[in-house]
Amino acid sequence: MHRRIGKLSYFLVPVLIITIVLLITQQVQRQLATSKQDAAFTAMLGLLDILSFSIFYKIAMVNKKNIRWHVGFLLAATLVILNPGLSRLLNQLQPGLGLIVAVLLPFAISISIIILEKIKYKRAILHSPYFLFLCIWSLEILLLMNISTKVFWINMITDLFSSK
C-alpha cells in the first residue's frame, strides 16, 4: 500500500505544484491592485515554497531505501505544504500569528528531533536529515526577508504579473 501511494505521488506532486503556481499567480495579481510590496512578498514566498517542497520531495524519493532520510524529508515537504493553511487559520484567531508560527514551526520541529536523536540515539547532528532541513529552511527565511523587499524584485513581479 505504501509503495502504491508513493508511486501515485509521482503524479500527484506535479499536480500539486501546478495548483500552487496557479493559486499564487491569482493571489499576486489580486494583491498588485492594493500593494506591490505584499504582491512581491507573496510571489517570493510562493516561489520559495515551491522550490523547497520540490527539493524536499526529491530528496525523500531519492532516499526511499534510507528510512531516516525518507521520513525526514517527507516531514519537511509536509511542513512546507501545511504552513499556508495553518497560517491562514491562525491569522483568523490572531492577526499576524500565522506568519510567526509558519516561520517558527519548522525550526521547532527540526531542532526538537535533532536534540532527541542526539540525546536518545547518540546520532551525529551534522549527519541528520533534520539538520539539512534546518539549514535549507534557514536559507529560505533569509532569502524571503532579504529579496522580497528589494526594489528589483518588486519591479520584476509588477512587470511580470501586470501584463497578464
Q: Helix content range of the residues, please?
A: over 70%
| Assembly of the depicted chains | single chain
Strand content: under 5%
The low-pLDDT segments are none
Please report the distance between the alpha carbons of the first and last residues. 43 Å
What structural class do the secondary elements suggest?
mainly alpha
Q: Helical element count?
A: 6
Could you give the order of the helices and strands? HHHHHH
Strands, total number: 0
What is the CA-based Rg, rounded?
A: 17 Å
Major beta sheet summary = none
- What would the average pLDDT be, to the nearest integer? 95
| Overall geometric form | globular
Could you write a compact summary of the structure shown?
By secondary structure, this protein is mainly alpha-helical.
What are the defining features of this structure?
164 residues; mainly alpha; 6 helices; 0% strand; globular
Q: How is the topology of this model organized?
A:
Blueprint: H1 2-32, H2 36-62, H3 67-93, H4 97-121, H5 129-147, H6 151-162
Mind explaining what this structure looks like?
Helix content is 86%, strand content 0%. By secondary structure, it is mainly alpha-helical. The chain starts with a helix and ends with a helix. The mean pLDDT is 95.
